């Protein structure tokens, strides 16, 4: 949700700002802008659309400057248009913002009464006017920003530039990510490290409530109340190649094909041992996992689907009751807390506002045993949990999550095995066999990826449709949900998922020759029942596309297309069956010519409620 880059240096920083925005574009891409100070004063350029449009404008205007802030937007308040694009300006101050200012209406009313004129519909503009107003009585730039943000409610990361103080920038964060990048002659800030590895690997992650002043080659951090604080410096491990497209056409395609490596990296900590160590979830995990009597998983979107699959594993293999909740619902409903619960949050980014808030809510209800499964080690979520598992999928840039999902599933399966072991439901032989199966995952995914040509063919036929139904049973029902989500996100085909047994209770009414039905049909205990459900579809003229296991004995016939996955994988088949669905969505989107990596209306990291 919006990306921020800011820099103060002793050279022209425009190329750094633009390259940083390009890297952050996954966070929002409806408009972009930058503000700079040069010898003649403050300049602002804004454009609707992608960073490329802004770059063209910058090239045309030849602007340059040593201090600047830049922004790529995902609209919350006010439609995407130049007037609403950041930076917003007030009395020689420019502000970029990521997040939502919840009390913006009352602040706007107050500032209007004081004579400030608003030129946009955004909540951000109140921040610019508020700081300008504070500067009237508090000449120190950092103190004025602190006084202004003390009046804000909501979530924000901001960067502020002041025409009359060209050698410094002020940044602050509360509930939205922001980090500093350091070098000998410059200081930077950005929403994530990918924007800054072009210039430095030395990073300092700000905490909520931190406010920092950035100068060339130095910085100082204080809390909102002015108390100085120090935050540790760390070396970013992000490799430049990991965030480049390479020979792929889209990031989503790259990330689908990176899954064998992402899984191998995630599973690396298992080594070659025949037994699994609870310590992979953190130093205290053996004690904590030994105490818990139930699991509550909270997450959003694709990460929520990973949680739904895990519920089947946790209950059947580890024998522990598990509930799974959409984070945005859980945080607002009255629930019955149990202190012996392990609260598991799952998030690719670790910055999803709803998931963070749901975790806070669970803790406030007295549930202190918390574990997160996350792909970003420095994220807010990781810092707020007592136990953690970092998936090593590498940066995921395509908006539609793929490799993060399969690595989350791998982590959740390991959690299942550890809980089963701690609860004495797994003997040594079973444990070794399970680990053998887990280690086989990268290879199994690689084999499935070889099915791409067949899936591409299906996509051609499929792409003219306006609607689709996805069916699955048991732990493959969440996989059907994930397949439907992928398809709707990037191809804009309306897709819904149902547990196959529910079909006759309503959705069967939708089935006709124009409604393709995609079925996830592994060879498990529910296969025969699923086959009967599929007959019900066929009898109504529905066209079936079935993803079966090699030994499912599903035959192609008129109106039934079958694609056989190479092997049969038991409990882990849910992780594997999602891969062809990712490829199907990708190829359908390609045929339909949509923007695969940046689908309309979406953004990668949802840091607003
Ligand atoms: C879908 C997708 C989203 C995210 C959701 C949660 O492809 O990517 O549904 O899964 O926004 O994001 P994280 O996992 O970062 O918390």
UniProtKB/TrEMBL annotation:
InterPro entries in UniProt: GATase_2_dom (IPR017932), GFAT (IPR005855), GFAT_N (IPR047084), GlmS/AgaS_SIS (IPR035466), GlmS/FrlB_SIS (IPR035490), Ntn_hydrolases_N (IPR029055), SIS_dom (IPR001347), SIS_dom_sf (IPR046348)
EC code: 2.6.1.16
GO cellular component labels: cytosol
Pfam families, A to Z: GATase_6, SIS
Keyword Amino-acid biosynthesis found: no
Listed HAMAP family: GlmS
The protein's name in its UniProt record: Glutamine--fructose-6-phosphate aminotransferase [isomerizing]
Organism: Candidatus Accumulibacter cognatus
């Amino acid at each position: 949700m919006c990306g921020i880059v800011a820099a103060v240096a002793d050279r022209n920083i425009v190329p750094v700002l633009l390259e940083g925005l390009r890297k952050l574009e996954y966070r929002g891409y409806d408009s972009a802008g930058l503000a700079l100070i040069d010898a003649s004063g403050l300049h602002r350029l804004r454009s609707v659309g992608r960073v490329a449009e802004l770059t063209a404008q910058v090239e045309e205007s030849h602007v340059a400057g040593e201090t600047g802030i830049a922004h790529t937007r995902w609209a919350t308040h006010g439609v995407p248009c130049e007037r609403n694009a950041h930076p917003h300006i007030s009395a020689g101050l420019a502000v970029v913002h990521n997040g939502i200012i919840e009390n913006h209406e009352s602040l706007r009313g107050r500032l209007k009464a004081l004579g400030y004129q608003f030129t946009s519909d955004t909540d951000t503009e109140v921040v610019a006017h508020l700081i300008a107003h504070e500067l009237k009585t508090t000449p120190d730039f950092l103190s004025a920003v602190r006084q202004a943000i003390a009046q804000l409610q909501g979530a924000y990361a901001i960067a502020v530039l002041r025409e009359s103080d060209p050698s410094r920038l002020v940044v602050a964060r509360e509930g939205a990510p922001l980090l500093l990048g350091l070098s000998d002659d410059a200081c930077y800030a950005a929403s994530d490290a990918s924007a800054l590895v072009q210039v430095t690997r030395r990073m300092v992650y700000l905490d909520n409530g931190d406010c920092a002043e950035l100068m060339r080659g130095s910085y100082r951090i204080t809390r909102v109340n002015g108390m100085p604080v120090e935050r540790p410096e760390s070396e970013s491990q992000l490799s430049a190649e990991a965030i480049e497209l390479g020979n792929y056409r889209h990031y989503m395609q790259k990330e689908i094909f990176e899954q064998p490596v992402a899984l191998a990296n995630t599973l690396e900590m298992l080594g070659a041992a025949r037994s699994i160590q609870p310590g992979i979830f953190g130093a205290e995990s053996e004690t904590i996992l030994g105490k818990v009597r139930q699991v509550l998983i909270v997450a959003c979107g694709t990460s929520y689907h990973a949680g739904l699959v895990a519920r089947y594993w946790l209950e059947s293999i580890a024998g522990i009751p598990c509930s799974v909740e959409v984070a945005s619902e859980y945080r607002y409903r009255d629930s019955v807390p149990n202190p012996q619960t392990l609260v598991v949050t799952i998030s690719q980014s670790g910055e999803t506002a709803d998931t963070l808030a749901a975790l806070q809510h669970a803790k406030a209800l007295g549930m202190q045993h918390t574990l997160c499964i996350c792909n970003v080690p420095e994220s807010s979520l990781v810092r707020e949990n007592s136990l953690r598992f970092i998936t090593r999928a590498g940066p995921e840039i395509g908006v539609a999550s793929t490799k993060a999902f399969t690595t989350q599933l791998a982590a959740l399966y390991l959690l299942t095995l550890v809980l089963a072991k701690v609860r004495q439901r797994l003997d040594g032989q079973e444990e070794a066999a399970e680990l053998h199966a887990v280690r086989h995952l990268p290879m199994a995914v690689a084999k499935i990826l070889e099915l791409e040509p067949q899936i591409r063919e299906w996509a051609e036929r499929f792409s003219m449709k306006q609607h689709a139904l996805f069916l699955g049973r048991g732990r493959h029902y969440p996989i059907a949900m994930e397949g439907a989500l992928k398809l709707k996100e990037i191809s804009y085909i309306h897709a819904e998922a149902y547990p196959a047994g529910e079909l006759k209770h309503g959705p069967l009414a939708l089935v006709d020759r124009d409604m393709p039905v995609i079925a996830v049909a592994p060879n498990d205990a529910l296969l025969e029942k699923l086959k009967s459900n599929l007959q019900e579809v066929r009898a109504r003229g529905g066209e079936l596309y079935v993803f079966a296991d090699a030994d499912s004995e599903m035959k192609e016939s008129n109106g039934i297309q079958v694609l056989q996955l190479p092997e049969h994988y038991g409990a882990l088949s849910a992780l594997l069956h999602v891969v062809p669905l990712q490829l199907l969505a990708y190829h359908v989107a390609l045929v339909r010519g949509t923007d695969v990596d940046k689908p309309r209306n979406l953004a990668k990291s949802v840091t607003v409620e």
